[in-house]
Design goal:
- The protein has 219 residues and is α/β, with parallel strands linked by helices.
- It has two domains: 1-35; 40-201, 3-Layer(aba) Sandwich (Rossmann fold), CATH 3.40.50.
- It is built from seven helices and five strands; from the N terminus they run H-H-H-H-E-H-E-H-E-E-H-E.
- The protein has helices at residues 5-24, 28-35, 48-55, 57-65, 84-91, 110-126, 180-190; strands at 73-77, 96-100, 149-152, 167-171, 197-201.
- Helix 6 (110-126) links the parallel strand 2 (96-100) and strand 3 (149-152).
- It is globular.
Length: 219
């Protein structure tokens, strides 16, 4: 595929931008500041489309491909900016929820809290047949649910926890994994027993490419 001069320049722009972000994330102060801002998510507006995408997508996929998650322990890899899918999974009846993320978001911040309240307020509209889990309040999430919630702030490929799970899942994370063998081995370690399920939704589209150009390595 022939690449024109503009395309080559834009490839370099994308490369330099992503390299700079990686370098900055190695700085503790910058990392802390960045974690308080939406990275893969969005600010809560209450729109149906955003709730479906950022709050209920994971739960819907689990129910479609795994089935009823009532009483199940669930470990999500790479939850994103907020624990929106985690709250939804617990609300649907899961017994425990864990998240593995090297760079945890501001899970108890004001932006996250707006999402959690929105999830509870809109729950019956999306799941009229499923009663919101007892003893679960969005206003107190996640800080008051340490017995049902585990945060594993480690690189995905080498994450360790003594706990095992019925379900291991990720949504739009697999395409970012650099060591697939280590990722598969980690899934095996986390699954509780024969019959455990790993469900991963992988997005093969372009990520964070702001300059359009023809490049077979990107598209």
């Amino acid at each position: 595929m022939e690449r024109n001069k503009t395309g080559t320049i834009n490839i370099y722009k994308d490369f330099l931008k992503e390299s700079a972000k990686n370098v900055l994330m190695g700085n503790g102060a910058f990392q802390k500041w960045r974690a308080k801002r939406p990275r893969a998510g969005a600010y809560f507006t209450g729109s149906v489309e955003e709730l479906e995408r950022y709050a209920f997508l994971g739960l819907n996929l689990l129910r479609k491909y795994v089935g009823d998650i009532t009483g199940k322990s669930v470990c999500e890899i790479g939850a994103g900016d907020y624990l929106t899918s985690g709250l939804s999974i617990l609300a649907a009846g899961a017994s425990r929820y864990a998240v593995i993320d090297r760079f945890p978001g501001d899970y108890a911040g004001d932006i996250a809290k707006k999402w959690y309240r929105g999830i509870e307020d809109n729950w019956s509209k999306f799941y009229p047949e499923t009663t919101w889990s007892k003893n679960l309040k969005a206003a107190d999430f996640p800080e008051n649910y340490g017995s049902r919630l585990e945060l594993i702030a480690q690189p995905i490929e080498i994450a360790e926890t003594p706990n095992k799970f019925d379900i291991v899942c990720s949504f739009q994370v697999g395409e970012h994994i650099s060591d697939l063998a280590a990722f598969a081995a980690m899934n095996k370690r986390l699954l509780e027993r024969p019959g455990g399920v790993a469900l991963h939704r992988v997005d093969f589209g372009p990520h964070d490419s702001w300059f359009p150009y023809q490049d077979p390595l990107t598209y």
